[in-house]
Amino acid sequence: MLTTYVRNKYDLHWQKIIFAIVTGILVLGFSPKSQAQRYKYKRIYDEFYDEKLVHFGFLFGFGDARFNLYHGPQVAAPSDTSRSIVSPGNFAFLVGGIANFTLSKHFDLKTGINIALYGREIDYRFNNSPNYPPELRESTWLEIPVLLKLKSQRRGNSRMFVDAGFKIGLEANVRKNAATTTRLNTKTGDFSIEYGIGFEQFFKYFKFTPELRFSHGLANMYVAPTNPLSYSNAIQRLNSHSVTLYLMFE
Fold this sequence. Notes:
8-stranded antiparallel β-barrel, transmembrane helix, transmembrane, membrane, Porin family protein, Beta-barrel_OMP_2, Porin
């Protein structure tokens, strides 16, 4: 009888020990200190960035540029042997400066001056003769975009944004007497609407902002040639169009 009592007593003792160990593990596991150790602290860079009124930076852009082309009535005329006139995409490269003005918690005004290199191309294709060599319209432009940016709430060191606005362009390397040749000629000024989407990533010493932006020209850039032999007589309207990936650093 005594042996049974002693065994029961020790069984009860071990149950208390096991219960105490399990309770201690649970308490330590759900303690604030334990929870803090499970999540690594992430440093917030430039925490008061939005409290500054103006930020400056620079950008690089790589994209695809072409003309939105509209045929004239000559294409449909029976005497015209032209089958089609198209403008395939070609290279675009930009470099410039940025000025970003903070308007409110979620809105910024973004502008700057860019130097852009475009290689817009026109291809003429015929029914009864070999295709005419493509006309590559290489040009250098000075551009000033003005965009209103809507930015999301910042999550750590990242946030998304969308922007929209307009862009004024002025061609810098104008060709003289182009209208009297058989080659394609275009106007030296342009006005475009632009919109894009991107995200901001904050680092210790700078902010990196990639953005995909679309540009649609509103002005008719076509200049009718005085030479009646020019193949571009079959064109009625040309509008600029580009899709550009911007890499911005502020």
